[in-house]
Design a protein that fits this description.
about 270 residues, alpha+beta, two-stranded antiparallel sheet, 10 helices, 8 strands, about 35% helix, about 10% strand, elongated
Length: about 270
Amino acid sequence: MNPILFAVVVVAAIGIVGAVILVAASVVMYVPVDERVEQINAVLAGANCGACGFAGCADYARAVVEDGAPIDKCTPGGVECTGAVAAIMGVEAGQSRSMKAAVACSGDCEHTAKRFDYQGLNRCAAAKGLYGGDGACAYGCLGYGDCAAVCPFGAIAMERGIARIDRTKCVGCGLCVSACPNGIIHLVPEHRRKPVVLCSSRDKGADVRAVCSAGCIGCMKCAKVCAKDAITVDNNLAVIDQDRCVGCQLCVKECPVGVIRVPGAE
């Protein structure tokens, strides 16, 4: 037989045998999959961001069906996704709020300054490791974009020395929250009128003014004007209870340093 023809026959035979083995293995080793897993995976956001606490969307879908994982953990998918998963599982969706990231710092380059000229890795975590960071305010945004680097949706940009959130792109996955070494990024319920305190300093008023002209001074004017008792001042920093807040924005008008604002409107 022609050597070339012989080689072709041998390769073809090996291929056929291999195909038969694979088919047989797929039949013998087949593991039934609940069709709801594929249905849920299809309605998830598909971001594979890990915000749900699982390795990816497929793992989360499997956990919902097989392990009874909560149905509202796909933050990128929001309320619509939770409703779709609830319908597939035949349960009530309940009340679910869309969450967005907010940077609790107003100390951009116009309101604060640097303590020293940092020369090192262009990362917030590295800068913080050197005397707590180069910013005059130890509580503020470090400004090197660790949060922007981990955001898979391009929702964060560094502007005038601090992180800014594009709320039209933010899906509330929370990766930026974990990445911020100063812990100044928080997830807050999406609302067009409810304000938050865009500052994280817990120093006394005089000390805050010495390093930043846009920091909370703990004056309590916001708490006094709030008719719903939604604002408290804890360790020199105002805190707004989003569940109590009705969005009247009297605190926004009363704040003498302008750090109480509606995210996205600042």
